């Protein structure tokens, strides 16, 4: 039983908690174990950020993915790693290795590279056919290029990815959460862009929201059911308290 389970304001909302995607930037095995013991119940996806998975021994990655999977968390390598594999013409090998390492999903993005629409569709479908959970990502890592993407183009990409079979689409914000996608240079939400992106529904969107102020704003606006990503590994528990109205920013508001 959880501590203080009698408290009336702990999540009595009927809305299920939104998905939480955490950024794993290279946690050790013991850190992973500790994290899962304390916050595993509040975690859905663990992204091994960008190319970090390619810096570690295969056995270590396999041990980590096994721990995540046993806790019901889907681990997956960063979209950048898939982009590098695609750029090198090594996507089939990437897919095989991803499965051999025990990852349960992939992220299909074009944040750092350019990928033809037909290739993106094929990649999503091939990953799905291989039995992997697929999360795509919309947005560019270079702010100048990202600002060139119109809301209409983003919405079209979201639609196309979902039609190709993606389970969720991430709205890019990078690890820093500033000057990309729905955030301005200070990390504040650009309201009209958010509203436009959200108007078709947010159920299959995951908003990268690495900053507490962003998590608070999105939870207040859309409720506890909003899907949030790029949560730092030491902030997963703190995010759960926001979702439960157990931190000053959301006390009595959910
Ligand atoms: O897309 C992301 O949020 C991450 C982190 S960052 O952009 O490199 O800061 O990249 P990914 O390759 O998807 O892990």
From TrEMBL:
Enzyme class: lyase
Alphabetical keyword list: Lyase
GO MF annotations, alphabetized: phosphosulfolactate synthase activity
Keyword RNA-binding: no
E.C. numbers: 4.4.1.19
One Pfam assignment: ComA
InterPro entries: Aldolase_TIM, ComA_synth, ComA_synth_sf
Lyase recorded as keyword: yes
Record-stated family: Belongs to the phosphosulfolactate synthase family.
Official protein name in the record: Phosphosulfolactate synthase
Annotated organism of origin: Lacticaseibacillus hegangensis
């Amino acid at each position: 039983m959880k501590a203080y389970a009698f408290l009336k304001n702990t999540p009595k909302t009927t809305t299920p908690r939104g998905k939480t995607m955490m950024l794993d930037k290279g946690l050790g095995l013991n850190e992973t174990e500790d994290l899962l013991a304390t916050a595993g119940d509040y975690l859905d996806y663990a992204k091994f950020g960008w190319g970090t998975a390619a810096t570690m021994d295969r056995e270590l990655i396999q041990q980590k993915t096994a721990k995540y999977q046993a806790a019901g968390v889907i681990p997956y390598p960063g979209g950048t790693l898939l982009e590098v594999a695609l750029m090198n013409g090594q996507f089939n090998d990437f897919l095989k290795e991803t499965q051999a390492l025990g990852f349960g999903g992939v992220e299909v993005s074009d944040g750092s590279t350019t990928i033809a629409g037909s290739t993106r569709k094929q990649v999503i479908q091939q990953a799905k056919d291989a039995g992997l959970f697929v999360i795509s990502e919309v947005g560019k890592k270079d702010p100048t290029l990202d600002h060139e993407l119109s809301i209409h183009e983003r919405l079209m990409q979201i639609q196309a990815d979902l039609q190709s079979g993606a389970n969720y689409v991430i709205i890019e914000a990078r690890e820093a959460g500033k000057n990309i996608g729905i955030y301005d240079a200070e990390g504040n939400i650009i309201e009209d862009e958010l509203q436009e992106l959200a108007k078709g529904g947010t159920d299959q969107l995951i908003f990268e929201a690495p900053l507490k102020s962003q998590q608070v704003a999105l939870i207040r606006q859309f409720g506890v059911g909003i899907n949030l990503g790029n949560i730092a590994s030491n902030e997963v528990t703190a995010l759960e308290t926001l979702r439960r109205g157990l931190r000053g920013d959301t006390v009595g508001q959910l």
